[in-house]
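C-alpha cells please, single chain.
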Amino acid sequence: MRLHIGGRSGLVAGLALCQPHVAAASDPTQKTILGSSNPLDESFGVYVKELLDKWHVPGVAIAVVDGDDIWAEGYGIATFPSTPVTPSTLFYTGSTTKAFVAGALSLMIDSGNYTLPALPPTGPPSPYRHASLQLPSPEHDYAPRKLDWTTPISAVLGDDFVLQDAWATAHLTLQDALSHRTGMPRHDGAISRRYGDGDGAPAATVRDITRSLRHLPLSAEPREKFMYCNLMYAVLSHCVETLAGGRWLGDLLREWIWAPLGMRSTFFSLEDALAAEREAPGAVHLAGGYYWDNATAGFARAPFIGVREVSGAGGILSNVEDYARWVKCHLDGGRPVFSEEGIAAVRKPQMPVDSDGPVLFDTPQSYASGWFTSSYRGHRFWTHSGGMHAYGAEVYMFPDDKFGVVALGNTAMTSNAAEEAAIWRLIDEKLKIPETERIDWTKRWETLIGKKDIVIDGALDEMFPDRKEPGLPHDLPLESYAGTYFHPGYMNLTIQVVESEANDKPGKTLYAERPDATWMMTYDFQHVSSEYWMVYLGLIYERSGNMRLYAPAQFKIGPSGKVTGLEIGYRSDGALEGNILFTKID
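Here you go.
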C-alpha cells in the first residue's frame, strides 16, 4: 500500500496494512509532492473550495483509495481562527460507525466460538410470507446453537430486550436489527444521556437504551418495511458486549479491527479523542463543529458532545487516513481482518430501501449490514453517510474496481452535501463517465434542502388541515401548562413560558429544551386551537434551520381542570413514529 498525504513531502512506500500508524501533523506551507495520477490535484482543490463556500462548510478532509494507492488531503479550516484541516484531523464520523458493529458480529460468528444456551419453544413460525426470512422451527430451538445472523436478539439479551409486540420480542434477529427491518422507527429523541431520576442518575449505557425500547411503539410490522433505527444499533452493541463477557465495544473494535489495520487515530469516545490531543498536541486535533448563522452571516461554534451512549449507532471519532485503511480492507476482500465469507455476509443486500425520489442508479438501493448498496453504470458500490450535531461523513467503495473515497467535514448536513458532490466527481472521473451524463449532486442537495424547507413551512397545513382561523383559545392560563412532563422512554421534558421570538406572533408562548438527550433538542410551541399545538424541534447548538423537525401536540386536561399530560406525535422521514404521552409530574 502506498500512502500519499497532501502537505507532506514524498511517498510513504510499502506500508504494511497491519503496521501501527501514528498520525502526524501536516505542514500547510509545504508543497504537496504527488504523482501525476493524483486525483486530488489542483483543479479538484479549486472545486472543493467552491463547494465549501457554497454550502458554508469550514473544512473537509478527503481520502481516495485506488488499488494499492491512498491519497489524502485537507481543505479549509478545522478550527477557527486558523487551524487548517489536514488528513490527520479528527472528526465525528456518525453512522459510518454501524459498519464496524456489523464487522464485529461477523468476526464473532465466523469464529464459531459463541454458543447460545437452549431456548424454549417460541410458538408457530413467522406468519410473514418472506420464506427466506423464516427462523428455525420450534423443535430446533430446544438445542444449543452457534451464534449466527439469524440468532434471536432475545436469545442473547434475555429480558433486557422487550418490545411492545411479543412476537417481535421473541423473533427479531441480529440480521433484522442490522438491516433496519424491525418495525421500530427512529425515536432518536428518546436516546438519553441518563435514565433515572434527575441529574444524579448515572450515565446511560447501551443496556439502559435497550431496556427503554419496551416503552416505545413500533410503527410497522417486522420485516415488512425498511425503517432506519439508531436505537437498534445500540441494541446490537449491547449484544456484542454481552457475548464478549461485558467488555466495552470500543476496546473490542480496537483489538479486533483498528489495531490490525493500523487505525491508531480512531476513538470510541470524546474523552479518548481529547486525551490523545492533549498527549500529542499538533499531531492530533479534533476539528471544531460549526453551523452557519444566517442572522450574523457567519459561522457559530457548536460544542463537542459525548457519544459514549450512542455506541455502535454513531460513536466513532477518526480521520480520513484511518478510514482509508478501513475502506482498503473491504477492497481487499476483508484482508487481513475478515474472511471472504464474513465480509460477503456483511455486504449481502438484505432489505430494499423505499424511495419516492428520482431513480439515480441501475438498481434500487438496498440495505446490507451497516451499508447501503446499489449499482452505478454497472459498477456495484457500498456506501454510508454519517451525521452528528455539527459534523458530516461520507464513505463510498467500489470493491470490483478497487476504488473508494472517504470525506469528513465539520457542519451538519451541509458538509454531507459538499462531500457527496466532491466524491461523485472523483467516482465519475475514475469510471470515465462523460460530463454530460453525470448526476448533478449539488442540484440534488439543493432540491433536498429546499424540499425540507417547504415541508416545514407547510407543516401546519399538513397536520391541521381543517383548523379555523383564528383558533379557539387554550382552556387554561399559559402558566398552567409549564412544568415537567415524563415518559419512561423519552424521560423528562420541562416546559416554560417565554417571550415569543416570532415576529408575526408577539407575546408569550411555551418553550422547552432537553439538554440530557443525546440529541439536545429545542421545542418551540405554536398554538393552533384549544389544546392543540404545533411543536417545531431543533438542536440546541445548531441554529442553521437545516435540522428542524415538527410534530403535532395536544395537552390533556383532567376532571380537576388541571393539565395532566402532553401527547406529541413525533415524526421522521415524513411518517409518524408514534404518539408519545408524557405525564405531568410537576
